[in-house]
Amino acid sequence: MAKHDFKFLVVSSQNAVSKEAVEILCRQIKKKPNLVLGLATGTTMKPFYKELIKHCKRCKLDFSKVKTFNLDEYSGLSEGDKHSLRHFMENNFFKHVNISKKNIYFLHGDRRNYRKECSDYEKRIKSFGGIDIQVLGIGVNGHIGFNEPGSSFKSRTRRVKLSSKTRKSNSEDFPSLSSVPKYALTVGIGTIMDSRKILLLAVGDKKSWAVKKALSKKISTKVPASILRRHKDIEFIIDSRVASDIKLLM
Ligand code: GLP
Q1: Gap between the Cα atoms of 41 and 33, Å rounded
Q2: Which atom of ligand 1 is nearest to the CA of 145?
Q3: Is 178 helix (H, G, I), strand (E, B) or coil?
């Protein structure tokens, strides 16, 4: 596998992380109005979407031709479920911009035939020529999407078991830990790596271990995000709290 350089940007705050990412994304949408955009959920993404919405209004950025594919969805939850990631996206982003409903693609966590659901999603991404930009967060254990430690770097969209660490960390969005689904559908690491450009956003001390491992010399399936360093066009955008504990190993 070829070795690639990657861009690494440390900024002062969570707000600054969102601003940087939004600027990069908006430049790309202006260049290619029918961009295929990979999106993520999570607390890191909330201020990013807020900033993106502001920017859309301020600069009259047109989302009408942009297609979006979200990374993942909890198994068993319908898109109308208020704990679903689809619901998160609707509230935090989709309903605030002029994206066309038909251009929003999402994994359906409640489809019985989840294998078909996953392979159809892969085919759909390919039919649009692949993801142009994938926006990513990172889990406390280094997961990307819902690709938990141990996931193959070649993995494609599939159903996965969530680790107890991830369920605990995501339980804030649910009434109790036991109500957090045990499984999820996620695009694979191979699918993510096929994106033409990746922006990884990380904020807060909680992410410092995962980012440190992702940037360390050892690329291992134990830390799924570590493979990202081999991507030909990736930018890590992190705040100073994430960076404080990182001795750069490059
Ligand atoms: C979830 C999502 C990931 C996200 C991660 C981090 O598990 N599946 O895509 O990157 O959480 O979320 P947060 O930003 O809330 O820490």
Answers
A1: 23
A2: 9
A3: helix
Q: Are 89 and 56 in contact (CB under 8 A)?
A: no
* 148 Cβ inside 6 Å of ligand 1: no
Residues 157, 136: contact at Cβ < 8 Å?
A: no
Closest ligand 1 atom to Cα of 137: 10
DSSP string of 88-131, one letter each residue: HHHHHTGGGS---GGGEE---TT-S-HHHHHHHHHHHHHHTTS-
Task: Tell me phi and psi for residue 69, to 5 degrees.
Answer: -125, 115
Two tokens, residue 61: 């950025």
pLDDT digits (tens, 9 = 90+) for 14-30: 999 999 999 999 999 99
Write the pLDDT tens digit of every residue in 209-243: 999 999 887 899 999 999 999 999 999 999 999 98
Residue 239 sits at φ, ψ, to 5 deg, of -95, 170
Q: Domain 7-243, CATH 3.40.50.1360 — does that match? A: yes
Residue 122 bears catalytic tag: no
pLDDT at residue 3 in the model: 58
- Residue in 70, 92, 103, 141 annotated catalytic: 141
- Residue 70 designated active-site: no
